[in-house]
Write a structure and sequence with these properties.
Bound molecules: adenosine-5'-triphosphate, magnesium ion
Order of helices and strands of chain B: EHEHEHEEHEHEEEHEHEHEHEEH
Distance between the termini of chain B: 36 Å
Largest sheet of chain B: 6 strands, mixed
Mean pLDDT of chain D: 85
Strand content of chain D: under 5%
Chains: A alpha/beta, B alpha/beta, C mainly alpha, D mainly alpha
Strand order of the largest sheet of chain B: 7-6-10-11-12-14
Number of helices of chain D: 15
Distance between the termini of chain D: 42 Å
Low-confidence stretches of chain B: none
Largest sheet of chain D: 3 strands, mixed
Order of helices and strands of chain D: HEEHHEHHHHEHEHHHHHHH
Strand content of chain B: 15-25%
Strand order of the largest sheet of chain D: 2-1-3
Oligomer: heterotetramer
Structural class of chain D: mainly alpha
Helix content of chain D: over 70%
CATH architecture of the largest domain in chain D: Orthogonal Bundle
C-alpha cells in the first residue's frame, strides 16, 4: 500500500510548523525523515496519525483521500506511531497497555484478560520482540518499553509504522537490536517512517531520505550516494562545522571530588553506588550514559536537591554533604538544570523575575526584606545583551521565548555571577543548531577562563565534541573513565555496561 | 418580626410566633414584615433595618436575640419591641419580654409519658443547652419522677439529667437527620416515647416513629400542637407541650395598637393558658381515662401551687 | 491529591489584560445579578417584586450614608480574610479554613477583650494582635500538615473549620468565658477599651462603620507590598507557580508553605478580632457568620490581587447590606445573594465562558 | 537485574526500621490506654446484643471493666514487642487488632457500671456510613479520570432537595430518579467548567457548593415555606431480608435497612467491577493516569471525563436523596452537614479504591454513632469533643495516608487538546 501527504500545512498561532509538505511512503520501504529541532517532523506525523488536523492539504491512502479527525481514524487506516515520548501508562501491565482502546471484551464490556495475553505473546514471538505481558510498564527498561510501543501498533494491524526519534534514548547495542526489528518489519511488508537527527543512522537503514527545515521539505537524498556533511547542510541551510574546536590547555588543581557517594532514587532503591570522581579547574568532564542510569540523581546530589545517604563531596578541599541548594549556589557552584521548562525557569514570570530567580536575596537585588526591581531590570538587560537572548522586552513572560532563547537566558543567569564550577545538564536539548554553536563556544571559553565544568548529556556527539575527559554512567555506577579521543564504539559499549 | 435560627417554617418556635403576627394582620389589617436570621450576627442589623423600615412594634423571636434587642431598644427608645423567651431585669421601658413556664406543661407531658410507656424508659434530647430548651427537659424529667413517686414505679429518663444539667444535644436546630438518628439511638436504649426539643429537628424523630409505628415509638411535640402543624405524621404524636406564643404575641400587638403597650414582662403559665399540653388526638386510646384525669388533677394542682414540681 | 492543584492560571493579574481585569468582572457581576432576578421570576414573583428587589439592592448598599456604612462594615472582615486567602492562592494554597481561623482568632480576641484591663490603644493593639496570632496558629496546623505529611490543605482546613465550631461552643460554656448568669454559649462582653471606635459617631452614633475598615485598607497596601516587593512574597509566588523551579532556586518550600498558610490565618484572625472588637463586642456561637467562605469568593473575584480584593470585598459587603434591604422591602430571601455570589465566582473563574457570551466586548479570539 | 536485587535488600532495611517504629508506637499506645482508662474504674460494662423484640435474642455481653482493660493493654503491648523483635509479614493485621482493642477498652471504660445496645450502635454505624460511602464513590468516579470534585457536598445537597421536592409531587420512587438526574446535571456542570472551560477544578467545585447551597435555600424559602405540602415526601421504608434479618447482630446491622443501604453496597461493587474489569474502566483509568497516551489510542479524553464525572454526579445525587427520601422525608437547608467532604477523605483513606473507601466510610460512621452513645452514657468527656471525633479522624487519616497513597497522575490538570 502507498501513503501520500499532499501540500500539508499547519501552523500554531504565529509558528508555521509545516508549510506545503509533500511526502510519500509505500509498503516494504523505510523512509528517513531528517530535520533539526523544531523543523516540524513531529507535527507532520501527528497530522498523519490524526492527533492534529492540518490547516490545508490532503492525505491519500491507496490514492484515495482520507480525513482523520482523531487517532481512531488513523488507526483504523493502519497507521501507527511510536512517539518521541512514549505513550504508555506506567501503572498498567504490558498487555493492558497494548489492548487499551481496542480491548477484547466478553459480556458486559468485560475485558478478556486471557485473550489479551495470548495476542501479546503471539505478536512478540512473530516479530521476536520479547516482553512479559504481565509486568508493569514502569518496571521495564526503556528499550523494552519501546518494544511494548511497537507491539501496541502491530496489535492494531498497522501497515505504516512511524518512529519518532526512537534511538535518542537507546544504547548503541539497543540501537542495533532496534535496526534488526525494523528490517524484520520491512521484510514482512510494512511501510516505515524513521525520524531522527542522527545522520549516520538514516544512511545506515533508510531506502530514501527526506529533509525538513523550518517546516518546509527542502530536499530528498539517496542514502547510497549522500554524505553526512551534505545532509547536515540540507538540514541547517548553511555549512556547519560539526566539530567544535577545543584548544589544548592543561588543567588546574582539583576543584570537586566525590568519595563513595551513595544516593537513593525515587523508588527508594539505591540510585547511585560508590561514585568517585575528581574535577579540575580548566576542565570539562563529560558524563555519558543512557538516560535514567543515575546521572540525574548524581547531579541532584551535587546541587543539594537530593539527600546523600553516604559518602562525601569536597569542593576546594572543603567537605560538603547535604547542604541546601542555596548554600551550594552561594559557593559558586552553578547549575544548568536538564529541564528548563520545569526547573530552570518559571514560564509565567517575566524575564526580569527569572533573571534573579536564584539570586534575588543577594545584596545586589534586595536588603533581605524588600526587592529592588530596578537593579534586577538592569541585570536582565545586561544578561540579554551579553548572551544574545532575543526578546521584545525584559518584561515579557519567559514562555514567550523560543527554546533556544530560554536556554540562553538560563545559561546567562548562571554564568554571569560568581562562578567556579558549572554543572551543565543537557545544555543544548531542544535548541536550534545556531544556538548550539553559541552555547558550546560559551562553555569552552568558560573552561578556558579556569572554570571547571561537569557536562551531562545524552547526546554522545556533544560529549565527545566538548569533553576533556569522559566518565560513563550505567545503572547508578561509573563503569568507565575514558579520554576524549576514545573510539565512540567503545564509549557506546560502556554505556551498555559492557567494559573490558 | 425577626426570626431566630431555624427559619419561619420550623413547624415550631418561629412559626407559632409568626402565626400570632399573621392573626393580627388578619384581624386588624395592619401590615407586617419578616427578616429571617441566618446566624447570630444578623440579629442587630436586622432589628435596625426593621426600625429603619418604620415598624411600630418589632417582635424578636428567641432568647438568643436578648442582647441585640436590648441594644436596639436602647438606641431607639420611641419604637416598641417585644421579645419571646427573654426576661430583662431591670426591665426596659419599651421592651415587653414574653417568657413561658414551659416546665409546667412539660411536667404534665412527662407524667403522661411515664404512664403510657411500656418499656419503662422515656427519652428526650435538645437542640442546644439553653434555658428555653432545657426548661422543657426539666419539666419532662420532673414529671416522670413525680409519676415514679406517686406510683412507686421506676421509669427512667434518658438524655437529660435535671440535676447535672447535662444531656443529649444535637448542637443544631436544622439537621433533621440528626433528629432521626438521636431518636433511633434513644429507641435502641429502650425508650418508647421521645420528646425532641430542637424545633424542626424533632420532625426527623417523628419520621422514624412514623416508620416504626406508634406502638414502638411515640413522639411528644413542642411549642405548637404538632398533630395540627404536621398532619402527615399525626399518628405518632402522643401530645405536644404547647407554648402559645401566637396568642400572647397577638395580644401584645393589640396592646401596641390600642396604645396601652408597656414594657416589662409577661409570663405564660398553665394558669393563663400561655402554656399547656395538646389533646392526645390519635393516641388518646393509649392514654387510660384515669391517667388522663390524674393529669388534669395535676394541672389544677400546679396552678393552685399545691403540687411542687421538684 | 498531593501535587495536584495549580490555581495559578486562574489569575496572575499582574499580566492579565485590561479587558480581563475590568470587563470580565463587571460583565460577570451584571450577568450574575440578572440571572438571580430571573430566578426570582421563575419562582412566580412578579416583575414588580423583581424590580423592587433590584432597586432595594442598590439603595440598601449605596443609597444613603447608613447604607454605605453598613456596606463598609460588612466589607471590613471580608477584606481581611480575603487578603489571607489571596496570599494562600499566590503560594499555591487553597485555604478554605478562613472560617475556622476567624473563629479561633475572634475567640482569643474576645478573651483578651474582657479579661485584661489596659488603656484604649494598648488594649486594642493587644487584642487585635492576639487574635491575629491565634488565627495564624490555627492555620499553621494545615500548613505544617501540607508541608510535612502532604495532607491536602483543602481537606484539613475544612475539617479544622468543623472542629473550630465545636471548640467555640465548648469554650463559650467555660465559666471563665461565659457571660454571667447565662448558660447558653455566649461570652462576656469586651470592655470599652477593647472596642474599635466607630467612625461616624458625629453624624449618627448608630452608624456601625468602625476603625477596622481603615485597618483593612492599611492591610491591603501592606499585603500588596509583601506579595510583589519583598523576598518572602517572591518566594510565595515561586512556590505557588512552579514548585520544582522554586526548589532549584534554593527556596525552602516547606517553610514557605507553612509561612504562607500562617500569614493567611493571620489575616483571617484579624478579621475575627476586628469583627468582635468593632461590631459584635462579644462572641456567640456562629459569630463567624460564614465570612470565611464569602471571603473565598472575594479573593477569587479580586483575582488574588490585594487591590482587587479591596474592591470585590466592598462589592460583597454591598451585596450583604443590599440583600438585607431586599428582604425587608421586597420580601426576597437573603439566599438569592448567595446564588448571585456563586454565579459571580463561576463567571470570573471561567473568562472563556463570559467571552463566549459577550463576544463583541472582546476582540475576536 | 542487579538494580532490583539491590532494591529488595534496601526494602528490607526500610521494613525493619519501620517495624521498630510501629512496634514502639504500639507499646506507647498500650501505656496510654492503660494510663487513661486503667485507673479507678470498677463495675461491669454491659453491651446489649439484641432487642427484646428480636427472634433469636442473644444474652448481653458483660465485661468486667478493670480486668478487661488490663488484659487489653497488655495484649497491645505484647503485639508491640513482637513487632520490634521480628517484623512479621502480617503487621497491618496486628495494627488493626491493636486499634480495635484500644477502642474496645475505651468503650468498656465509658460503659463501666452502665449498659448500652452494641447492636444499635453497629446498625447506626452502617446507616451513618451510607452517605459518606456514596460521596466517596462519586469522588472516585471523578478522580479516576483526574477530575477533583470538591463539589460533591453541593451535588448531594441538590439531590436531597430534589428528592424531597419531587418526591412530594410524584412520589418517592420518581423523586429518587429525579434526584439522581439532578446530581448528574451538576456533574455535567462540573465537567463543562473544568473540561471545557478549564476552570481550576477546586474553584469550580467550591462554586458549585455555594451555588447549590444558595439555590436550595432560596427555593426552600420561596417555594417550600409557602406550600409545605411540597416538602413532605414519603420515605423508603426499611426492607427486612427474610431469615438473614433475624440473625443476631448481623441481621440488624446489614439486613434491616431501606433500599439506599442495599443499593449503596451494590454501587460499591459495581464501581469496582467497572473500573478494574471492564474496557471502559480501563480507558477511564488510562485517562486519569496519562490522558495523552489515551488520546493517541483514539480514546476521547474529553468524552471519557464527561461520562465519568456525570456518573459521579449521579451517585452524589443518589447519596443526597438518602437524607430526605431515605431518612426524614423533608428537606432543610444545609442538611448534608459536610458529609460530602468527609466522603472525600474516605476516598483518600481508601486509596481511590471503592472497597477501601467503603471501609473508610464505616470507620467514620462508627466514630459518629459512638459519639451519640457516649452522649447518653454521659462520660466526663464534653459532648463537643465527642462530636469532633470524625473530623479529627479524617485529618489524621489524610495526613497519615497521603504519603503512601498514590493518586491518579494527571489529577487536577486540565487536558488541552491541540488541533
Ligand atoms: N502544540 C504546539 N503548540 C505550539 N507550537 C507547537 C506545538 N507543537 C509544535 N509546535 C511548534 O512547531 C514547530 C515544530 O515542532 P515539532 O515538534 O514538529 O518539531 P520537531 O521536528 O519534532 O522537533 P524535535 O526534533 O525537537 O522533535 C516548533 O517550532 C514547535 O515549537
Ligand atoms: N462509560 C464510559 N466510561 C468511560 N469512557 C467511556 C464510556 N463510554 C464511552 N467512553 C469513551 O468514549 C469513547 C467512545 O466510546 P465508544 O464505545 O463509542 O467507542 P467505540 O468506537 O465503540 O470503541 P470500541 O470500538 O473500542 O468499542 C471511548 O474512547 C471511551 O473511552
Ligand atoms: Mg519531535
Ligand atoms: Mg464500542
Amino acid at each position: 500500500m502507498k501513503i501520500e501527504l499532499k501540500e500539508i500545512s499547519k501552523s500554531f498561532g504565529p509558528v508555521a510548523a509545516n508549510t506545503k509538505i509533500n511526502l510519500s511512503v509505500s509498503s516494504g520501504e523505510v523512509l528517513g525523515l531528517l530535520g533539526e529541532n523544531g523543523a516540524g517532523k513531529t507535527t507532520l506525523m501527528n497530522i498523519l496519525t490524526g492527533l492534529y488536523q492540518p490547516d490545508s492539504g490532503q492525505i491519500l491512502i491507496r490514492d484515495q483521500e482520507r480525513k482523520f479527525y482523531n487517532p481512531r481514524d488513523a488507526i483504523k487506516n493502519g497507521i501507527g506511531m511510536v512517539h518521541q515520548h512514549f505513550m504508555l501508562v506506567p501503572v498498567f501491565s504490558v498487555s493492558e497497555n497494548v489492548i487499551l482502546g481496542n480491548e477484547p471484551i466478553t459480556n458486559v464490556n468485560r475485558i478478556n484478560k486471557k485473550e489479551a495475553r495470548e495476542e501479546v505473546l503471539k505478536i512478540s514471538s512473530k516479530y521476536n520482540l520479547d516482553v512479559d505481558p504481565d509486568e508493569l510498564v514502569e518496571r521495564l527498561p526503556v528499550g523494552v518499553q519501546q518494544r511494548v510501543e511497537i507491539i501496541k501498533i502491530l496489535f492494531r494491524e498497522a501497515e505504516l509504522l512511524i518512529f519518532d526519534e526512537p534511538t535518542a534514548v537507546l544504547t548503541p547495542q539497543e540501537v542495533l537490536d532496534f535496526f534488526r526489528i525494523v528490517s524484520n518489519l520491512k521484510k514482512s511488508g510494512k511501510a516505515i517512517i524513521f525520524i531522527t537527527h542522527k545522520l549516520h543512522e538514516v544512511i545506515q537503514i533508510c531506502d530514501r531520505i527526506n529533509v525538513l527545515r523550518r517546516g518546509e521539505m527542502v530536499g530528498e537524498a539517496n542514502p547510497k550516494k549522500t554524505s553526512n556533511s551534505e545532509l547536515a547542510e540540507l538540514m541547517v541551510g548553511r555549512s556547519v562545522n560539526l566539530k567544535t574546536k577545543r584548544p589544548k590547555i592543561n588543567r588546574g588543581k582539583v576543584l570537586l571530588e566525590t568519595k563513595n557517594l551513595q544516593v537513593m532514587s525515587n523508588k527508594k532503591e539505591m540510585g547511585l553506588s560508590n561514585i568517585n570522581l575528581k574535577l579540575h579547574e580548566n576542565e570539562i568532564l563529560g558524563i555519558a550514559g543512557v538516560q535514567g542510569n543515575g546521572q540525574t540523581e548524581f547531579i541532584e546530589a551535587l546541587t543539594g536537591l537530593r539527600k546523600i545517604s553516604s559518602g562525601e563531596i569536597s569542593y576546594f578541599d572543603k567537605r560538603y554533604t547535604n547542604l541546601s541548594p542555596r548554600k551550594i549556589h552561594k559557593m559558586g557552584i552553578k547549575h544548568i538544570p536538564e529541564d528548563r521548562q520545569k526547573q530552570g525557569l518559571i514560564n509565567e514570570f517575566s524575564i526580569i523575575e527569572n533573571v534573579v530567580l536564584n539570586t534575588y536575596y543577594e545584596d545586589a537585588f534586595s536588603n533581605n526584606i524588600s526587592l529592588n526591581w530596578n537593579s534586577a531590570k538592569s541585570e536582565a538587560a545586561r544578561v540579554m545583551k551579553q548572551f544574545d537572548v532575543r526578546a521584545s522586552s525584559e518584561t515579557i513572560p519567559a514562555n514567550n521565548l523560543s527554546g533556544g532563547n530560554q536556554q540562553k537566558l538560563v545559561i546567562g543567569r548562571e554564568m554571569s555571577r560568581k562562578i567556579n564550577l558549572l554543572i551543565a545538564s543537557q545544555p543544548t536539548r531542544g535548541v536550534d543548531v545556531g544556538s548550539i554553536e553559541y552555547i558550546h563556544s560559551q562553555i569552552i571559553s568558560a573552561r578556558n577562563a579556569g572554570i571547571g565544568i561537569l557536562l551531562n548529556s545524552t547526546e554522545l556527539e556533544e560529549i565527545i565534541a566538548l569533553s576533556d575527559r569522559i566518565i560513563v554512567f550505567f545503572e547508578g555506577k561509573i563503569v568507565a573513565e575514558l579520554s576524549s579521543n576514545t573510539d565512540p564504539q567503545i564509549i557506546g559499549m560502556a554505556m551498555a555496561g559492557v567494559v573490558n | 418580626q425577626v426570626t431566630d435560627l431555624g427559619g419561619v417554617d420550623d413547624k415550631s418556635f418561629n412559626e407559632t410566633a409568626w402565626k400570632g403576627v399573621q392573626d393580627a394582620v388578619a384581624k386588624h389589617g395592619i401590615d407586617s414584615k419578616i427578616l429571617e436570621s441566618k446566624d447570630g450576627t444578623d440579629y442587630e442589623p436586622h432589628l435596625n433595618s426593621m426600625v429603619g423600615a418604620g415598624c411600630d412594634i418589632i417582635v424578636a423571636v428567641g432568647f438568643l436575640m436578648g442582647e441585640a434587642t436590648q441594644k436596639a431598644a436602647e438606641a431607639n427608645p420611641d419604637s416598641m419591641f417585644t421579645i419571646i423567651d427573654f426576661a430583662y431585669n431591670p426591665t426596659i421601658p419599651n421592651v415587653l419580654g414574653q417568657v413561658f413556664a414551659t416546665d409546667q406543661a412539660a411536667f404534665l407531658a412527662g407524667y403522661v409519658s411515664a404512664g403510657v410507656s411500656k418499656t419503662g424508659i422515656v427519652g428526650t434530647f435538645g437542640g442546644i443547652n439553653i434555658p428555653p430548651v432545657t426548661g422543657f427537659m426539666d419539666g419532662f424529667a420532673w414529671g416522670v419522677s413525680h409519676y415514679n413517686k406517686v406510683k412507686g414505679k421506676n421509669v427512667q429518663v434518658l438524655g437529660w439529667d435535671p440535676a447535672a444539667k447535662e444531656g443529649l444535644f444535637t448542637n443544631n436546630f436544622d439537621s433533621l437527620d440528626d433528629g432521626r438518628a438521636f431518636a433511633q439511638n434513644l429507641y435502641d436504649e429502650g425508650a418508647d416515647i421521645v420528646m425532641p426539643v430542637a424545633g424542626p429537628v424533632g420532625l426527623g424523630s417523628a419520621s422514624l416513629a412514623d416508620e416504626l409505628g406508634s406502638d414502638k415509638l411515640k413522639i411528644i411535640g413542642v411549642d405548637g400542637d404538632w398533630t395540627v402543624t404536621d398532619p402527615a405524621r399525626k399518628g405518632v404524636y402522643l401530645t405536644s407541650v404547647m407554648k402559645n406564643m401566637d396568642a400572647t404575641t397577638l395580644s401584645v400587638i393589640e396592646m401596641a395598637k390600642s396604645g396601652n403597650f408597656s414594657g416589662g414582662l409577661t409570663v405564660g403559665t398553665l394558669e393563663n393558658g400561655g402554656v399547656g399540653i395538646a389533646p392526645y388526638h390519635e393516641l388518646s386510646s393509649s392514654v387510660s381515662s384515669d391517667l388522663a384525669s390524674e393529669v388534669e388533677a395535676l394541672r389544677k394542682g400546679i396552678i393552685s401551687g399545691s403540687i411542687k414540681m421538684n | 491529591m498531593k501535587n495536584s492543584i495549580k490555581i495559578k492560571q486562574a489569575f496572575s493579574v499582574d499580566r492579565t489584560t485590561f479587558q480581563d481585569i475590568f470587563f470580565i468582572p463587571i460583565l460577570a457581576i451584571s450577568l450574575a445579578i440578572s440571572l438571580g432576578l430571573l430566578l426570582l421570576l421563575l419562582t412566580g414573583e412578579s416583575y414588580q417584586t423583581a424590580l423592587t428587589a433590584l432597586i432595594a439592592l442598590f439603595v440598601g448598599s449605596f443609597g444613603s450614608v447608613s447604607a454605605l456604612s453598613e456596606t463598609l462594615t460588612a466589607a471590613t472582615p471580608l477584606i481581611f480574610a480575603a487578603l489571607g486567602i489571596a496570599i494562600g492562592f499566590r503560594a499555591g494554597l487553597f485555604n478554605i479554613g478562613a472560617e475556622g481561623q476567624i473563629i479561633v482568632g475572634g475567640l482569643a480576641a474576645v478573651i483578651i477583650g474582657f479579661s485584661v484591663e489596659l488603656p484604649l490603644m494598648l488594649h486594642l493593639t493587644l487584642m487585635l494582635s492576639v487574635g491575629a496570632a491565634f488565627g495564624a496558629g490555627y492555620a499553621f496546623i494545615s500548613g505544617w500538615l501540607k508541608a510535612f505529611t502532604g495532607a491536602h490543605e483543602v481537606i484539613t482546613t475544612i475539617m479544622l473549620n468543623l472542629i473550630a465550631f465545636r471548640l467555640l461552643d465548648f469554650f463559650l460554656r467555660l465559666p471563665f468565658i461565659q457571660k454571667e448568669g447565662r448558660n447558653d454559649p455566649i461570652s462576656k462582653s469586651v470592655l470599652d477599651t477593647a472596642e474599635l471606635p466607630r467612625l461616624l459617631v458625629l453624624i449618627d452614633p448608630n452608624l456601625r462603620i468602625h476603625a477596622g475598615f481603615l485597618l483593612a485598607i492599611l492591610a491591603v497596601i501592606l499585603v500588596y507590598w509583601i506579595i510583589f516587593h519583598t523576598t518572602i512574597g517572591f518566594e510565595f509566588r515561586m512556590v505557588g507557580t512552579n514548585l520544582n523551579a522554586a526548589k532549584y532556586a534554593g527556596v525552602n518550600s516547606s517553610l514557605t508553605i507553612v509561612l504562607a498558610m500562617s500569614a493567611a490565618g493571620l489575616c483571617a484572625g484579624l478579621a475575627g478580632a476586628s469583627q468582635i472588637s468593632g461590631v459584635l463586642g462579644r462572641a456567640t456561637s456562629g459569630f463567624s457568620a460564614g465570612i470565611g467562605f464569602d471571603a473565598i469568593a472575594v479573593a477569587l473575584l479580586g483575582r488574588a490581587h490585594p487591590i482587587g480584593v479591596l474592591f470585590s470585598g466592598i462589592l460583597f459587603g454591598a451585596l450583604v447590606a443590599g440583600g438585607r434591604e431586599m428582604q425587608v422591602s421586597a420580601g426576597v430571601s437573603l439566599d438569592l445573594i448567595t446564588v448571585i455570589q456563586a454565579l459571580i465566582i463561576i463567571f470570573v473563574a471561567a473568562p472563556i465562558l463570559v467571552k463566549s457570551i459577550f463576544p463583541w466586548f472582546f476582540g475576536k479570539k | 537485574m542487579r538494580k532490583f536485587a539491590l532494591s529488595k535488600q534496601t526494602m528490607n532495611i526500610a521494613r525493619t526500621q519501620s517495624s521498630l517504629i510501629s512496634g514502639s508506637f504500639l507499646i506507647l499506645l498500650a501505656i496510654l490506654v492503660f494510663m487513661l482508662f486503667g485507673f479507678g474504674v470498677e463495675g461491669e460494662a454491659t453491651f446489649r446484643l439484641s432487642r427484646p423484640s428480636d427472634p433469636y435474642a442473644l444474652p448481653n455481653l458483660v465485661l468486667p471493666a478493670e480486668s478487661f482493660i488490663g488484659i487489653a493493654s497488655l495484649t497491645i503491648a505484647f503485639f508491640g514487642a513482637r513487632l520490634i523483635v521480628k517484623a512479621p509479614k502480617e503487621y497491618s493485621v496486628i495494627f488493626a487488632i491493636s486499634f480495635f482493642l484500644a477502642i474496645a477498652t475505651f468503650l468498656v471504660w465509658a460503659t463501666a457500671g452502665k449498659s448500652f445496645s452494641l447492636t444499635g450502635m453497629l446498625q447506626a454505624t452502617v446507616v451513618r456510613a451510607v452517605p459518606i460511602a456514596l460521596a466517596a464513590m462519586a469522588g472516585i468516579m471523578c478522580e479516576r479520570v483526574a477530575v477533583i470534585n470538591i463539589g460533591i457536598e453541593g451535588m448531594m445537597l441538590a439531590g436531597a432537595f430534589a428528592g424531597a421536592f419531587f418526591g412530594s409531587i410524584f412520589g418517592s420512587v420518581l423523586g429518587l430518579l429525579i434526584a439522581i438526574a439532578v446530581g448528574g446535571i451538576f456533574g455535567l456542570m462540573l465537567a463543562l467548567l473544568v473540561v471545557t472551560f478549564r476552570v481550576d477544578q477546586i474553584i469550580a467545585g467550591v462554586a458549585i457548593n455555594i451555588l447549590v447551597l444558595g439555590l436550595t435555600s432560596f427555593f426552600t424559602s420561596h417555594l417550600l415555606k409557602k406550600n409545605p405540602h411540597l416538602n413532605d415526601t414519603a420515605v423508603f421504608k426499611s426492607i427486612q431480608i427474610p431469615i438473614l434479618a433475624d440473625l443476631p447482630i448481623i441481621g440488624p446491622m446489614l439486613f434491616r435497612h431501606n433500599i439506599f443501604v442495599y443499593l449503596a453496597i451494590l454501587i460499591v461493587f459495581s464501581t469496582t467491577f467497572y473500573l478494574f474489569k471492564t474496557a471502559y474502566g480501563l480507558r477511564a483509568r488510562a485517562v486519569g493516569e496519562h490522558p495523552k497516551a489515551a488520546e493517541t489510542l483514539g480514546i476521547s479524553v474529553i468524552k471519557t471525563r464527561f461520562i465519568n464525572v456525570i456518573i459521579g454526579g449521579m451517585i452524589a445525587g443518589f447519596g443526597g436523596a438518602w437524607f430526605t427520601l431515605g431518612s426524614v422525608g423533608r428537606f432543610d437547608e444545609g442538611m448534608t452537614g459536610g458529609r460530602g467532604f468527609i466522603g472525600l477523605a474516605a476516598m483518600i483513606f481508601g486509596r481511590w479504591h471503592p472497597v477501601g473507601a467503603l471501609l473508610a466510610a464505616l470507620v467514620f460512621g462508627f466514630a459518629d454513632s459512638l459519639q451519640q452513645k457516649l452522649a447518653i452514657l454521659r462520660t466526663p468527656i464534653p459532648s463537643e469533643f465527642l462530636a469532633m471525633a470524625p473530623y479529627i479522624v479524617t485529618i489524621i487519616v489524610v495526613a497519615g495516608i497521603v504519603g503512601s497513597a498514590r493518586p491518579p497522575q494527571a489529577i487536577g490538570k486540565a487536558y488541552i487538546k491541540e488541533n
